[in-house]
Amino acid sequence: MSKEQVEIEELMRLCGRESSKELENLNVDQRRRLSTLVVEEAEIARPMMLVVLIWCVSSYFNLSKSGVFYHVDSCSSAWWTYTAMELPTLLVVMAMITWKSIRKYSEKKQLTWQPDVGDIDWNFRKAILYPSAAMGAGALGGLLGIGGGMV
């Protein structure tokens, strides 16, 4: 078995494919890029760092409002500034993650990758709907006093 055939077999395994017809039509650079995208998607450390980043940003704003870092009076202009800045900051982070997810998904689809059953078919509509539903569920959970495990 040639090295190229071994690479195609490995890529088929990573992509969950039974047929290699489309993969054989890709050039070496395209196969390497597809392989890189699929392997990056399997990493856990980077998404966990993003979760920690979002948690830290949210904690910073809330701890700053409470006066832990600075003396901030409730309902003062500084307090309202921290309150007003939290949502736009988190929306920017969400937009960056969403843009990256759509871009990678589109690139994989162009390289003949086939999504698995249950994978999200990322497009602009779903990229807005999914985080919005999560925010709505979190808001309802907070307002109703339901624990995060139930949301």
Automatic annotation (TrEMBL):
Presence of keyword DNA-binding: no
Any one GO biological process: protein ubiquitination
GO cellular component, one term: Cul4A-RING E3 ubiquitin ligase complex
Keywords, comma-separated and alphabetical: Membrane, Transmembrane, Transmembrane helix
Keyword Protein transport: no
Regions that span the bilayer: 44-63, 79-99, 128-150
Annotated protein name in UniProt: Uncharacterized protein
Source organism of this protein record: Reticulomyxa filosa
High-level lineage: Eukaryota, Sar, Rhizaria, Retaria, Foraminifera
